[in-house]
Amino acid sequence: MIKNKPIKITLFAVAVLLIIFQALVIGVAAPKEYQLIYDWIFYGINFVIIAFLFFLLHSKNQFMKWMQWGFGLALLVANTTFFYHMGDVNMVVSKSEDGQHEVILKEYKKMKDETVRLKRRGFIFGKQTAALTGSSTYKTIEENSFKINWISGDTAIVTYQASEKGALQQRIFSFRSSDYVSYQQVAVSLTGKWLEQENSQNYLMYDAGEMVFAKDGELYYYKAHDTEQQGIFSLVIKSDEKKPSFTVVLNSDCIFGDDGLIMDGGTITIAQVSFDDIENKVYFKE
After folding, report:
1. Is 180-285 in CATH node 2.40.128?
2. For 226, which of 8, 21, 59, 222 could close a Cys bridge (C-beta 3.0–4.6 Å)?
3. pLDDT of residue 59
């Protein structure tokens, strides 16, 4: 097919390099839990390799020619089938306002895998660091039932629905560097009364495992079992439909004292667990 020798050598070298790349993806990256962020790259390279080999390994023998056609067709069908089932993904890349941080969510449309969060490694690779619990059957991104909310420039709150009629869930991803150890207790650090900056009638109060949230003239009470700490800078407060669910994020100005409490001058942000466009509110300690 291709008679020009330099071109043929060049194409053959490119094909070899692509095959080596695919081998590294499967044999080196995958065992270390790295994956291509965009799966179409892998299958696209396969299509290119198949095309290159078809043109480069052309034989004049009729039998060998038919063998090449059959083998090439089999590879083409196999790659297309895998691409249809495993390469069809939904991707979300959300960046912080300053562009310094990003959240990558990846969802397989036709597979019963949970939607995962990838941490970028290099330009096209990512490593799975978390999964959205319950998203294996209900495709959150496909149904557009999610929201990503950036707080304090270094914390992303992912609100999502894990089933058609299920309650909203949240995952918090913090990019803030810290020397603190993992056993810092966010709930305990909130001990005291916190007032909303724009309306001091709204407040959050915590003491000995009990929490009171005052919002628009209503009082809501929570126990320790209603809270879930995620990382060392955020606390998710879950409840039923009768009480609001919300997330408390310690802002970057928060410093833990020796007693485990937030020192004076620190502020927190409260974000409602909702798909509605509700403004986050900043609170300061009384």
Report:
1. yes
2. 222
3. 64
